[in-house]
Design goal:
There is one protein chain. The protein is an all-alpha fold. The protein has one domain. It is 71% helix and 1% strand. The protein has 12 helices and 2 strands. It has a two-stranded antiparallel sheet. Strand 1 and strand 2 form a beta hairpin. Helix 9 runs parallel beside helix 11 and helix 9 packs across helix 12. 24% of the residues are buried. About 2% of the residues have low confidence. GO terms for molecular function: membrane insertase activity. Belongs to the OXA1/ALB3/YidC family. Keywords: Cell membrane, Chaperone, Membrane, Protein transport, Transmembrane, Transmembrane helix, Transport. InterPro entries: YidC/ALB3/OXA1/COX18, YidC/Oxa/ALB_C, YidC_ALB_C.
Length: 284
């Protein structure tokens, strides 16, 4: 029953939307997946904007947080209470990032099933008006070629067939690495855009014994870990998953960068300048 509900709400609509884009784009599955990624990002713009504004508000609390540390530094419990009050005042929710993450995971999960159904030439869940584009189930054959890749294959499958270091497999490995690289660059870029005034992080202060970690410190530690874990995880998945998902991931990352440029040009420009100052001028 749960599978039926999931398919009805998520998988089948995405399957049919993919087929519409595929048909309109001259039977090109790669472009159809790119359009799905772009559409997903466009739908998430209001949520992304709200999350970005909240992150910037949090960054603006630093002077008040420093004042609280001076005032209640000797009383960790009181300090934690006052910090929590301050966070509540601006409406901070530590789980706020899930608001944008969950829809993306839903689309990604549904897309995996969609690609599998398309490659198996299954008409299950295809709406009647779309079925008319195909005279019979035998004609329901999707063109899965896109640039250098077969979107149904992965580095693992091609490597097993031709050898892990064959020319055929290397192109799929490069695609998987591009997924992780784009994910990492986008993560760093996003952090700087959400707090464009920061260039070099302050020196980490030692926490006194028995003093609880502030929500700010907890969030900072979690962010640093995710900056590495998420890109590595996507590479690991992309190596084994169909290259269609890799194309989707890369498009998602590029669209996220484009969102910042389009929605908030002034702050984005300032963030890019600070990135240049930190990583390039500093090395000269």
């Amino acid at each position: 029953m749960l599978t039926t509900i999931w398919n009805t709400i998520f998988t089948y609509p995405l399957l049919n939307l993919t087929l519409v884009f595929y048909h309109l784009c001259g039977d090109n599955l790669g472009i159809a997946i790119l359009l799905i990624a772009i559409l997903t990002r466009l739908i998430l713009i209001p949520l992304m904007k709200r999350q970005t504004e909240m992150t910037r508000k949090m960054a603006g609390l630093k002077p008040q947080l420093d004042e609280l540390k001076k005032k209640y530094g000797s009383n960790p419990q009181k300090l934690s209470e006052e910090q929590t009050k301050l966070y509540k005042k601006v409406g901070y929710n530590p789980l706020g990032c899930l608001v944008t993450m969950i829809p993306q995971l839903v689309v990604l999960s549904a897309l995996i099933v969609v690609i599998r159904n398309l490659t198996d030439n299954k008409l299950d869940g295809v709406y009647p008006f779309i079925q008319t584009w195909f005279t019979s189930a035998s004609d329901f054959a999707i063109n899965t070629k896109f640039l250098f890749w077969d979107l149904t294959k992965s580095y693992s499958t091609v490597g097993a067939e031709f050898g892990k270091f064959s020319m055929q497999a290397i192109s799929y490995l490069i695609l998987a690495l591009l997924v992780g690289g784009s994910q990492y660059v986008t993560t760093i870029f996003t952090m700087k855009m959400q707090n464009p005034t920061s260039v070099v992080p302050e020196k980490k202060k030692e926490r006194k014994k028995g003093e609880p970690m502030s929500p700010e410190a907890l969030q900072g530690n979690m962010t640093k870990s995710m900056n590495l874990i998420l890109p590595l995880s996507t590479i690991f998945i992309a190596v084994s998953a169909s290259s269609a998902l890799s194309i989707y991931w890369i498009a998602q990352s590029l669209m996220l960068v484009a969102q910042y440029w389009i929605l908030d040009w002034d702050k984005t420009k300032k963030g890019v300048q600070n990135l240049y100052t930190k990583y390039f001028k500093k090395s000269k």
